């Protein structure tokens, strides 16, 4: 079931708030003795573009995998579009996902790959064809759609992966570095697409290291550090919290909250 | 760059590749207990053999030169083949972009060569110690330890150089000539079938292989025996041959090493031709025959999964080629066993089961490996039930007509009645679906981290597969489960069972028909259980 078919009632069958696209409660993931995600409490409203930031190894990918039901949490609970994140069957109707490496068959053409995905999603053939044509045109991939993906550049693969993630108009779309490898024109198309998705009430969970993209698009930002959500809020609100106020950038906020306190103290002593 | 510097850097590359390989797969000495035990067994066997030869010579008899030549030739061919395999696997993992922008191509090639030699040496060391131990005790000459060690090391050097050159030549030809690659891979997978038929014909015609075997004694490979036993001073051992083989190595090995450098550079710098075209889409949305008949009673996602499996097999026939395992087991073990039973119906059951297994393996095996790249999308797009049913549908749509075309005419032409022919065909269909279900359940039990990119037949696109013997053992597991479920059909249709039962008043045909029906029931039950397990495993399959 896609977003267009979902019930827009305020409270769903599970008795949860339908205004919330994502909610987690004390979500935790542990590998052996290593804690990847530590007590994550997230609430993301519908139609939000949520910028999910954090240094390498902070636990962003693990969090996304838990939210997309690809990885069971060690403890804690969570819901995406009202469906529990431990119930993959229930969740798949509501989500689209573009991981860092686009999940596409090298042996297929882009058209075959997108038809495959549309078929798995039980979309009608006419709807699949129409969505594929529209999105291929939008991402300037129509001319190459019948070439094997193995011959594609990194950017073309990324575009195919992105089209795949959004073609079924999901309630919540998880994008992990969606502008990676794209030329400026394609990156702009991606940014515009993300804005359009949010305007149509789709929630975009955006994980990227390109902070200007988040600053431009995100309505809400959460920064993960060492498995914990260290700060959350609107980009302007986060910037105001710094001494420099609105003159500072999201990069300043990121560096401020992701600096180890011990090292920061040592640095200031040295100075 | 000087030769010494090239060798130094080549050694560094070999060591780095060795570390990577050891961390990925372990070594026979540390990583795989079964293999280590096997090697110790081989060492004991070789030790005993060397001891026996030593005692024979000590008792005044001559060295069994011809038999030893045959043994050394087989060992040399094995070493060359293993070297070729190590080259193939490591070449795929090599990072030419890094190496070729850091060191000259010849240094990188020497690094690869060094790795292959080190890898082969770790496999040889335990058997060689056994051989040396047996020979020292048997001959009573401690110095033989040195001559055997030199002989084995020299033979390994030649085998590595030859194996690597052969593999690189094959790879270069395959890159340039797509057709040659196609026939090469076909020969590798199914070449054993004509070989087996040839061996059977030779056996039937009672042709002696003695003249062929005697040739081995005349080949220069046999000179390694002279080198190994030169310390014994035995009359048949030629010291001229012993030193001749060393001289030959001094000339041949550097030539082959030079050749590998040129070949490796050619491969790294060439643009590969592809086995399949790179343009043109095949629609996954067309309404097929089954869809027209059954309509929307089967969800669209199920058809899509089945169509994707067929399309993937057209592009990279990994499932179809994996049926080589089935044909090998059923041809080399099942066929002689059924011929021994001497019952026509049992033979027909064997055909039906084999065809069912082939179709089931072709479209049900390795689900994670096949979907490896798209797994995050597949797991977040389709339900477990739909994915598994799609796999079963893909196998059934191929298996059902295949069983009908092969089994039904054979049954009708032969002395088997129509009823038993139809039942046997039903059994073949049930086996096909059952095999796919078991293969899916078994395949979904492999963790995501177990897969690495490896080269595969017919294509230059690396596929994801499990390393080592695990994948092979999994095929054994699938075959074991399905064949165990089919056991009543093989036993019940055999005259060894039906005839004794007939003596107590139950007619033979009734026993045969009953056993076929019972097997269909068992196979169906196994299918249901395996499907449920597969669905459960798909629904909870994690990606770390």
Automatic annotation (TrEMBL), chain A:
GO molecular function: ATP binding
UniProt-listed SUPFAM superfamilies: P-loop containing nucleoside triphosphate hydrolases
Organism: Halovenus rubra
SMART domains for this protein: AAA (SM00382)
Span of domain ABC transporter: 22-251
UniProt KW keywords: ATP-binding, Nucleotide-binding, Transport
Pfam family, one: ABC_tran
Record CDD domains: ABC_DR_subfamily_A
Descriptive protein name: ABC transporter ATP-binding protein
TrEMBL record, chain B:
UniProt keyword terms in alphabetical order: Membrane, Transmembrane, Transmembrane helix
Domain of life of the organism encoding this protein: Archaea
UniProt keyword annotation of Zinc-finger present: no
Transmembrane segments: 29-51, 63-81, 124-141, 148-170, 182-202, 209-231, 243-264, 319-341, 347-369, 390-416, 422-444, 478-498, 510-530
Presence of keyword DNA-binding: no
Residues making up the signal peptide according to the UniProt record: none
The protein, known as: ABC-2 type transport system permease protein
Lineage: Archaea, Methanobacteriati, Methanobacteriota, Stenosarchaea group, Halobacteria
